[in-house]
Amino acid sequence: MMDKYDCIVIGAGPAGLSATLTLGRARRKVALFDNGTNRNRVTHESHGFLTRDGIKPKEFKDIAVKQLESYPSVSISNETVIKVIKDVQRDLFLVNTSNNKSYITEKILLATGIQEEFPLLQIRQYYGKSLFSCPYCDGWELRDKPLAIIAENDEHIIHMTKLVFNWSKDLIVFTNGHQLSNKVRNDFESKKIKVYTEVIKNLHGDNGNLESIELESGENILRSGGFVVPSFYRPNKFAEHLNCQVDENGGIITDSAGRTTVIGIYIAGETEKAGPSSLMIAAADGNKAASSINMDITLDRF
């Protein structure tokens, strides 16, 4: 007979790790599943997390896992969850993994995060080392350098350019074929921000360090780093398959405390809004969702 868990947490990013810690300290039997695909694995340093500013993502995760080992009711498995099935009759969930193993739990916390899609495939070679998506996370390290803004959507271009201008005044915007309105171009030019609307042909650099951006015309513009605006997506459809309600923007509807519209299914971190979040906020979301899980179990059993 399979062991029954109080909660299974899927995803060991900051949200999942934080939730597991809270549940372990609440003496709940919890299993944490992770397959090592968390989004920040490609970056060399993580910033903005109080007492851990500049830590390597792997070190951050290793410290968290080591601390979780202090709690005997917590187990950690490096397995990929491929399916979650709701057993309506028993009011439980069946979790299947790629290792052909199955687990039973009362509650599920989805903390699988999101992944990026870039306007140029080449960006992946530089992402996390000289090209980034979050100025709050990496703007300080790129301060005062000649930077590129690579984005294709008016709203994204305006937002990112204005934001990055706080860290460096030496900016050039690359829209990769997208045309900007005269007003936006004039606003940028008044700040001495040049705009190239040509399609980008190539990125040049060495070992992940950007050196220049080549346009279709053959012109090469020297840049030593910059910021891109990717699109984001959830790497799985667990929430949808479990009939959790989703809003018009693809976000999963919650009560703001981690509870979805399906009893027993909770969500935390970037998974909820399908948008980026800082380590600090994701960890706080995990703590909040775990508190909801613990309270619901308490009320169910008292």
UniProtKB/TrEMBL annotation:
GO molecular function (one): oxidoreductase activity
Q: Where is the FAD/NAD(P)-binding domain?
A: 5-150, 177-286
Q: Show the Gene3D superfamilies listed in the entry.
A: FAD/NAD(P)-binding domain (3.50.50.60)
**Pfam families under this entry?**
Pyr_redox_2 (PF07992)
Tell me which domain of life the UniProt entry assigns to the organism this sequence originates from.
Bacteria
Needed cofactors: FAD
Cite the entry's keywords alphabetically.
Flavoprotein, Oxidoreductase
Q: Summarize the subunit comment.
A: Homodimer.
Q: What is this protein called?
A: Thioredoxin reductase
Species of the source: Cytobacillus firmus
